[in-house]
Design a protein that fits this description.
Elements (H helix, E strand, L loop, with lengths): L1 H5 L5 H12 L2 H8 L3 H15 L4 E4 L2 E4 L1 H22 L11 E7 L1 H6 L1 H11 L3 E7 L5 H6 L4 E4 L8 E8 L2 E5 L11 H6 L1 E5 L8 H6 L4 E6 L5 H5 L6 E4 H10 L4 E4 L8 E7 L6 H15 L11
Parallel strand pairs: 3-4, 3-5, 8-9
Antiparallel strand pairs: 1-2, 5-12, 6-12, 7-10, 7-11
Helix pairs in contact: 2-3, 2-4, 2-5, 3-4, 7-13
C-alpha cells in the first residue's frame, strides 16, 4: 500500500473519467459534474499521464474509449461505487449485535460505583461488548487516553486539547467508621485528629486527601492503593477512613455495620468526569457506552445522601 499511495494519481480523476466514459463528451460530463470544460480536460490529461496510455480517442464530435480505457472503465465500474458508498454511508450500529472489547480507564472510586451497573447494562443491551477496566487516576489519565483507552472516568486536572470531557458527578467526602469501636455523637475536628486513620495514597506514602488538599497531618495506621479493602480494614477497629460519599455507600452495602459521619473539615469534592479522545466522537460503539455511563451517573444519589448515618 505505501507504493500505491506514493504514485501520482488523484482518485478523484477516476470519477471524472467514469462520467466522461458514460457521456462520451467532455461538455456533457462537465455539466453533470458541475465543472468547467477545461477542468474536465485537464483531469483527463492528468489521468492519461498517470496511466501511461491514451484512454479516449476522437470519434466524430465525441469521444470513444480505447482498449486501455475500456479495461479501466470495467475496473472503475466494479470498484468506484462501493468506495463512494463506503465513504458517504453513515455507519450502522446495533447494540444487540455489536462485538468489540473496550478499554475503560477507571479510578478506584469509579470502579466501585460504575463498573457493576455498567457490566449489567451492557449484558442486557449489548451482550457482545466486553470491557477491560484499566486503573487510572488524575496524574495518569492523560497518558492513558493517549495510549489507546476508549474512555476514562476519574477526577482530571488539565487534559490535552484532543481530549473531550464531560462532568458526571460532584460529590463530597464522608468519614467511615465502625460504631462498635468508635463512639461519637458528633465527630469534632479534635476527635477526628485524635483517632488513627487508614488512607488511600496514590503516592505510595502516608499522605491521603486531607494531607494533600488541606496540608494537615493525621495519625495514619495504614495506607492502601485503592478503596477496595477499606471496609474490611475499618470493620472491627477504631480506625477512621475519609472516603468519597459514593464509595462509602458501596462499602456500607457490603459492610452493613459501618456508619458514616460528616468530615469536620472544609473538604470539597472534585468533579468526576468522563473523558475520551476527540477522534472517537463519532464512534457508534463509544457513543453507546458513553451514553450508558452518563445514564448510570445520572441515577447516583445527590445532595450528600451517602453521608447520612
Amino acid at each position: 500500500m505505501p507504493k500505491v499511495y506514493g504514485r501520482d494519481l488523484d482518485l478523484n480523476l477516476l470519477r471524472v473519467f467514469a462520467v466522461v466514459a458514460e457521456c462520451g463528451s467532455v461538455t456533457e460530463a462537465a455539466a453533470r459534474l458541475y465543472l468547467t470544460q477545461p477542468a474536465v480536460s485537464a483531469a483527463l490529461r492528468r489521468l492519461t499521464t498517470a496511466v501511461g496510455a491514451p484512454l479516449f480517442a476522437r470519434q466524430g464530435r465525441g469521444l470513444a474509449l480505447t482498449g486501455r480505457g475500456q479495461r479501466l472503465r470495467a475496473t472503475v465500474a466494479a470498484h468506484l461505487p462501493p468506495l463512494i458508498e463506503a465513504a458517504l454511508t453513515p455507519a450502522t450500529f446495533d447494540p444487540r449485535t455489536a462485538a468489540r472489547t473496550l478499554r475503560l480507564g477507571l479510578s478506584d472510586a469509579a470502579e466501585v460505583w460504575l463498573l457493576p451497573p455498567l457490566v449489567k447494562a451492557l449484558a442486557a443491551a449489548a451482550p457482545a461488548l466486553r470491557v477491560v477496566a484499566v486503573p487510572v487516576q488524575f496524574r495518569t489519565v492523560a497518558a492513558a487516553l493517549a495510549g489507546g483507552l476508549d474512555a476514562a472516568v476519574t477526577v482530571a486536572d488539565e487534559l490535552p486539547a484532543g481530549i473531550r470531557r464531560q462532568a458526571l458527578y460532584r460529590g463530597g467526602f464522608t468519614c467511615l467508621f465502625d460504631p462498635r469501636h468508635v463512639r461519637v455523637r458528633r465527630l469534632t475536628e479534635a476527635a477526628y485528629f485524635a483517632h488513627e486513620h487508614v488512607v488511600v495514597s496514590y503516592n505510595g506514602d502516608l499522605r491521603g486527601v486531607v494531607e494533600d488538599m488541606l496540608g494537615k497531618a493525621r495519625t495514619v495506621r495504614c495506607a492502601v492503593a485503592s478503596f477496595a479493602t477499606i471496609g474490611a480494614l475499618i470493620e472491627g477497629t477504631a480506625l477512621l477512613a475519609t472516603v468519597p460519599e459514593l464509595v462509602a455507600a458501596q462499602l456500607r452495602a457490603t459492610h452493613p455495620r459501618l456508619r458514616t459521619a460528616p468530615v469536620p473539615l472544609p473538604l470539597a469534592g472534585s468533579a468526576i468526569e468522563l473523558a475520551w479522545p476527540a477522534a472517537a466522537d463519532d464512534d457508534p460503539v463509544g457513543q453507546f457506552v458513553r451514553g450508558q455511563i452518563v445514564a448510570i451517573a445520572g441515577r447516583l444519589p445527590r445532595g450528600g445522601a451517602a453521608a447520612r448515618r
